[in-house]
Structures are given as C-alpha cells and as structure tokens.
Design brief:
This protein is mainly beta. Among the domains are: 464-494, no CATH class; 495-583, no CATH class. 12% of the residues lie in helices and 37% in strands. The strands form ten sheets. The chain has a four-stranded antiparallel beta sheet with strand order 3-2-1-36, with no helix packed on it. It contains five helices and 38 strands. It starts with a strand and ends with a helix. A hairpin with a 6-residue loop joins strand 29 (320-325) and strand 30.
C-alpha cells in the first residue's frame, strides 16, 4: 500500500506498512505547489494540478503519461476506472468572449483527446457523474439532467426534464443502474428510478416528499440496492437547533422507504454504511452524542455509547467502526469491534483535520493540514489498536494540504480483530490547540500584579456532583447552597448585619461587609432566609435601596435631581420597613 501527500512543496508518493514513509522509487516527485489531487476509484490512475497544468500518471509504476495546459484549472475528477478526466476551469468573460467560453472539459485519457467542453459557471456541484462501469455520463443543467454514453458526449442519450431539480445521484453500479432526483418544489420530493425508465412519475420505484428541505445528500450502499437520504433545512421552525433541521430517510430499489428515527434530539453528525450494505451507523444528538447501528428496516440493533463525537467511519473490511470527535471537538477517536460491540481502544489525536482508513482496513491515516491549521502540519499512521506507527512533520515554511491512501482493492482482505497491543512510537508533535492563548492586545505585556487570569469555559474546575445533586433541579440546588452558607455564617458568629434605630424609631440595616466604590455600605450584603420567594423580594429591595443611596450622594454633591428621582428617594423608609419585615 502507498499514500500520497501534497502541499506547498509538491507531491510525493510514500510507502505504507511495513516500510512506512519510504518514497516511491518509480514516481518522479512533483516540486512546487499542488492545488488538487485525485485518484481513480480502482487506484490505477492519478491526476493533479500544478505549474499551470493538469498532470496524469498511471500505476503501479506511476509514470507520467501526459500533461494538459489548463492555467485556470481549479478542480479535477477521474472516472472510476480512470478512462476519463474532467477539468473545471474558472469561468471568465472577456471583451472578445462576452458570454465566456466553455470551462468544463472532459478528456479521453487513453485516447488522449478532448471529448467535449461544457458551460459550468458555478463551482458548487460542478462534478459530473459516471457509473462504476463507465458506460453512463451525466450532468445537471437548469431544470434538466442530461445522460450520455461516456465515449460519445456530442449526443444526449437520455434526458430528464424536471422543473426546480436541484440535485441528482447516479448509482455507482456496474450492471443495473439507478438514479435519484431531488426537486425543491413545494413540497420538495425525491424519486428513485431505474435508468432509463424515468419518463413518467409512475415509473418511480420509490418516492419521498418533504414539506421544506433545502438539500439532500444521497449515500448509496456498496451493492447499490439502497440509499440513505440526509436532508437539511436551513431553518429549524421548531427552534430546537441553531443549525437548521435534519432528517434521515431510507429508500431501496424494491420500493421500500421509511424515515430513520432516533432516541435523542439534536443534529445528525455523521452517517456511514457498512460494506455489506445491510447495516449503517449514525452519530446523532446533542453532545454527548449517541452512536447507533441500524439495519435496513431502520431498526436500532446496537448502541455504541455516548460522548463528544461527530464522526463515524467504517473500515473497508467492515469489522471495525471508528467513532470520534473532530473539528470543534478535541480530536479523539475510538475503535470498536462491530461483531462483539466492544471498544478496542480510545486514542487522542490532537489537531487532526482529516482522516481516512487504509484499503486493508488495519491502519488510519490522520493529518493536520492548512488552511484549517497552519501550525504543526503533519501526517500520522495509526494501527487500529491505537499504536502510532509513523509520523512526519512538514518542514518549517511549508504547508501540508492533503494526505490520502492510494486506492488498492487487492489489499481488502478479511482479518480477525485482535485486542493485543501493537508496539508503536511516541509522537513528537507539540499540540497547537493546548498552547496558552494570549490575545493580540496583551501579547508582550506583563500581567497586572494581583490580578488573576480569567479561565476559559473548558478550564473551569467543577467538583464532581453526587447522584443526589445530579437529580436536583438547578433552582433547588442553588437554594440549598444558600441555606448552607447562611447556616455556616451563623455558626461562626459572623455579624452579617446589625440593626439600629434612628430618632424616629425607624429600623435601618447596616452591613458589615465592604461594598464597591460609590455604593453606600448600609445596603451591602443582607442575610437571606432560604425561602426562594422571600429571598427574591429581599434582593429586589436591596437593589432599589442601593440606587437610592447613589441618588442621595449625588444630591449632597450639589447635583439637581429630577422629580422622578426625588420620588424614588421618598420611598426609602417604606422599603427599609419592608426589608426589616422580611429579614426578622
């Protein structure tokens, strides 16, 4: 097995186990920035963008077989067997060409010729689609989806006219082909057809409609007999999620369809099919999120715990599930034995921005890449037991943009999962996310004497709660703490307040604690009763008396008060009487 790394310094092919990191002896390394890299699904062809052109190499020797001059190339895509190459150039208009020129070019790799150029202004959803056997080529245009014979792109073989069609998905199959269309009407809907029988709506094998959906992501299982539809609406009308509303549906070529229901509210973070096409995993719910395995009837058949997770990846062999948290979660993964439903290991992998299983299903390639992170760019290879097998830090001044395995179907051989520890190496990477953050305005300055630094939310230390405390409501627990604090002060004989009478017999409250500057001391801390209703009134009265104290101080300094302020001062005695009645 091999893996490829690209970045600002160039493109390299390196060996996997057992000689981790050894450069390929047959691939001539590309120097200079490489902006995109793609492999064919079978791993026999590789294409990349660099030096103003698109280069193609053929495996297993990886000898370059040609270069196409495309100075504006931004995206590339190889067909499953590498027979065809699609290149998307930046769409540009000029005086000579006010309408622009075709910017999506499709080439015959083996025939070394341009098959056709299309207009494709948007970079979003620019990719055309092929079936796995490369017999059908398809792309979406306004209100239509066009299908071609892959080797003949001058003539449209089939056409689906569908107003407001927003996306489609051609099954990655090798014999019988299916296609799913999504139209954003009101209501929105998806239709599953067998190609090319999609002339009439009645020809649909399965349907699903939605009241409001903005996008649908289609996830085919490996046998292409069923698909999961991950739908998303930008706005969640129920108000339960800031990120909008998501749902998951199941469709199959037999005509069955159903919605996948979950035991916990929240977002759907990640979905993955098992290679057998009979089961799928979902990570869902508010953090700590749940991980569950479902069958094709959409029944939950196994639970894989809860935690700070947003990712699930099934290895190509289908016997290990990686469940972890990445991105805005402290990077960590867990390896689970699917058959025994037991966790093999839990492992931290700080600052990981990308990860992918090896073709053999025994190793995980993780990387820290720019522009997501521009410090500590590196790639690591882990054994499924959690052992770090290989690590490489990018040289200072360079950036790593991607690290991926070279596809290799022959490496996909079943193996028995072992819990035996594997000897690994120690990581030399200094974790960027754990370094102390200093705001730009405070960098280079000395800390103020006597001022304690503020803690971030993740640094706040909280004592562990007992089971009884966990079952208490927040308000009950808060009142309980207040009563305990008041009781402790009484036992220590601390004088919280003293009561003195004035000449008119009115009782005033005098606190013995220090109050902030500008606040008269007599309205400082007042002992609470432990009764939530009384304590609430005491706090409100204290707030009003403090405001009156400030107004009196302003009046004594010579400031002319307004009528409403004088009226407020006149209520002082009444408030004091009310406060005394509550505290006695």
């Amino acid at each position: 097995m091999q893996f490829a790394v690209r970045g600002s310094a160039g493109l390299r092919l390196l060996s996997g186990p057992p000689d981790f990191g050894t450069p390929s002896s047959t691939f001539e390394e590309h120097t200079g920035a490489v902006n995109a890299l793609r492999f064919s699904t079978d791993g026999k062809f590789m294409a990349w963008i660099g030096d103003g052109g698109v280069h193609v190499a053929e495996g297993p020797e990886w000898k370059k077989i040609g270069t196409l001059k495309h100075p504006r190339a931004k995206e590339i895509l190889l067909s499953p067997k590498g027979s065809y190459l699609a290149i998307w150039d930046t769409y540009v208009k000029s005086k000579d060409e006010p309408q622009g020129s075709p910017n999506l070019c499709v080439y015959d790799v083996k025939g070394r010729k341009l098959l056709k150029s299309f207009y494709q202004q948007s970079q979003v959803d620019w990719e055309p689609q092929w079936t796995m056997d490369e017999t059908i080529f398809a792309r979406r245009v306004t209100n239509e989806v066009h299908f071609y014979q892959s080797n003949e792109l001058q003539t449209i073989a089939e056409k689906k006219i569908l107003p407001k069609v927003k996306s489609f998905s051609l099954s990655p199959s090798s014999d019988i082909h299916h296609v799913i269309f999504f139209a954003q009407k009101s209501p929105a809907f998806t239709h599953l057809y067998r190609y090319p029988n999609f002339k009439n709506t009645s020809d649909a094998l399965a349907n699903k409609s939605f009241f409001k959906m903005d996008t649908v992501e289609v996830l085919w299982n490996k046998p292409t007999t069923a698909a999961l539809l991950l739908t998303a609406a930008e706005v969640d009308k129920s108000g339960t999620s800031y990120y909008g509303e998501q749902m998951l549906f199941y469709l199959d070529t037999k005509g069955d369809s159903s919605r996948v229901t979950f035991s916990k509210d929240g977002n759907i973070h990640s979905v993955a099919w098992c290679p057998n096409g009979q089961h799928f995993f979902v990570v869902y719910g508010t953090i700590p999120s749940k991980a569950t395995m479902f069958n094709r009837k959409c029944d939950a058949i196994a639970e894989f715990g809860t935690g700070a997770r947003n990712t699930v990846l099934i290895n190509p062999v289908g016997n290990i599930a990686l469940i972890g948290g990445f991105g805005n979660i402290s990077a960590r993964f867990e390896m689970w034995d699917i058959s025994s439903r037991k966790m093999i290991v839990g492992q931290e992998c700080p600052d990981t921005t990308h990860l992918v299983w090896s073709p053999c299903g025994k190793y995980l390639l993780t990387s820290t890449c720019a522009p997501r992170l521009r410090v500590n760019n590196n790639y690591r290879v882990w054994h499924y037991s959690g052992a770090l097998m290989h690590e490489m830090l990018v040289e200072e001044g360079s950036e790593l943009h991607e690290a991926v395995w070279v596809p290799d179907a022959e490496a996909n051989v079943p193996f028995e999962v072992s819990t035996k520890a594997v000897q690994g190496i120690e990581s030399q990477v200094k974790t960027a996310s754990k370094e102390k953050y200093i705001p730009p305005s405070q960098r280079g300055k000395k800390s103020v004497a006597g001022m304690a630094p503020k803690k971030f939310l993740s640094q706040v230390d909280e004592p562990p709660k007992t089971l009884a405390e966990q079952q208490m409501s927040k308000s009950t627990l808060k009142n309980k703490k207040k009563r305990e604090a008041a009781k402790k002060k009484k036992e220590e004989g601390t004088a919280i307040s003293s009561k003195t009478g004035d000449e008119e017999g009115n009782i005033q409250v005098s606190a013995s604690v220090t109050t902030p500057s500008g606040v008269t001391p007599e309205y400082g801390e007042v002992e609470l009763t432990g009764d939530p209703e009384k304590d609430k009134k005491i706090k409100n009265i204290k707030k009003k008396l403090t405001a009156i104290s400030k107004l009196k101080a302003e009046q004594e300094s010579g400031k002319v008060l307004e009528k409403n302020q004088l009226d407020k001062i006149a209520t002082e005695n009444k408030l004091i009487e009310e406060l005394n009645g509550l505290t006695i």
